[in-house]
Every structure is written in structure tokens, then in C-alpha cells.
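Task 17 of the worksheet. Students: predict the tertiary structure of the chain below and write it out as C-alpha cells. Keep your answer in the requested format; marks are given for formatting as well as content.
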Amino acid sequence: MRRREFIVGFGATMAGSLAARAQQPGMPVIGVLMGYAESDLEAQAWVTAFVQGFKELGWIVGRNVSMHYRFGAGDADRMRAYAEELVGLAPAVILAHTSPVMAALQQATRTIPIVFVDVFAPVGQRFVSNLARPGGNITGFSSVEPEIGGKWLGLLKEVAPLLARVAVIFNPETGPFSPLFLRAVETAAPSFAVKPIATPVHGVADIESAISAFAHDLNGGLIVLPSAFVAVHRQLIFEQAAQHRLPAVYGFRYFAADGGLMSYGVDVRDLFRRSAAYVDHILKGAKPGELPVQAPTKYELVINMKTAKALGIDLPVQLQQRADEVIE
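Model answer:
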């Protein structure tokens, strides 16, 4: 989907939200709390995918359902405040995007049904008791498991055979699951003769200083762990990686599409589209605790050749052939 289509589709979605203010009495209310900024084109595309999937099930925003949106913009404090706001609206269901959003909502309510999307290790983070029968008021669509950290490291080594050090970049506030991924990278590191270095960043200034300090030594690379904070500030990370000529791997396609070297992860838009069915089931009487947590079904390896050339990296032909998408 092109940029114009993103904006047009999302504009229609938000127009539906405004129309919902004149909702009919008894019309169910859906709360949507996104971890990213409202201006983020990926966040717009995901919300549009959910609304379109919902429409296919017979739910029309402003006609028989009301939508209320909040966008956390990668800020954990804002997410907590918006979680309280949405819970105060007493919605029939809340759609929760990212782990810190899910954590904020879990603190705010134990009764309102919640369907999460793009949450890592939901059992490990204690959002649900188990995947088959999550119990309580929460279910949803999980993202990749932390073991993928070893796969990211392997891809980076394939791209940069001389790789000896890797900075694992994460934000502890919006990526509370990051230690799980870091542990997977550390477990895989000896087999690739690479030293992993935990690199937490708490604010925008930390991104530049941390990458600059790491780049002082040779044969380094970056693994950028997914979280709302790094997604919001991804352009700055791309700029720093380019400036210091560091190969980097990311967790989602849009990182590579927006200028990152490569990504390997799930199709988040597909998760949002599929989540509409769970919200529909709950509105029709299903209990979230009896709906099994769904795992991803689509994984994508995406390579940005333009970025590779700018970094002076000659990508292996075999890797290009394995890629689901090569961006020229």
C-alpha cells in the first residue's frame, strides 16, 4: 500500500471515529490503544487493516459500533494515562498494541475484555496464564518469540562475516521484554564468535551517544530490538547506523522499507486484520479467556539494497534469494 493510500484509508478510519460521537444508544464502544504515534504511517496502516477486517464482519464505525483511539507515541507514561482514559469510557472491548500498552491496560482493568496485537512472550510477561486457555479478560495475537534473537544474529553475521561485536539496542521502558531477546542473542553468540553488548537507550539523546560510543571499535553491528520507542525514533537510528557504517538488523519490515539494512519478523498488518475476528467474537458473547492466543503465521525477510550499497556491503546472493522482498 502506498503512502497516499495509507493516509486516505486512515483518514476514513478517523472520520468514522468522529462520527461515532453521534452514536446510537446501546452501540458498543471499542477502545484502541496504539503504542506508536498517530502520524506513523505503519500505525495508520495497521488500524486501517483492523477496521477493514471489522467491516467485513458487518461492523460499520458510526453505524453499529463506535471506535475511540489513543496513540502512545512510544512514551510509557502516555500509554498509562491513555489506558486509564479508555477504561473510563467502559468500552465493550479494548484493542491493545504492544507490550507496554498491554501492561498499562492490565493494571487499569481486570474485567474489560482486551485483545492484544504484537505482544512478545505473553505468558512470560504474565499477561495470560497459558496460550491455549489464557483465562481472565485477556487474549490476542502474539508477535515473535524471543528465540528469534539468535536468527537476527545469524543474519547479521552472514551479511558481515568479520562481525565480532554487536550492540543490542533496546529501551527498557517500552521494551520490558528485551532481556528475553538479549538472553537469546547471548546464547547464540559463541557459535558466531561474536560478543553481544547490551545497549539500553532511555531517551533520544541516548541513541546518538550509545551508537557513537559503540562505533569507536571495528567490526561492529547492531541488533535493534523492537519496541514502540525505537519504532518512533527509527529514522535517527538509521542515520546513526549510516554515519558509522554499521550493519543492522531489525524486527519488522517497515524498518527495512524506511531505510534500515534488513529485517526479519512477522507481518504485523496481518495480525491486526486477524484481530478483528476476536473482537467480533467477544461482542457476540465469547469470553476472551477461552479464546486461545494466536501465534504469527507470516514471517518476512526484507533487505534494503540501497542501504547495503550506501554501507559498502556486498550482500550474499544466497541471502538475496532467500529474502521475501528486496528493496532496490
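Marker's comment: The first helix runs from residue 3 to 19. The chain has a mean pLDDT of 91.
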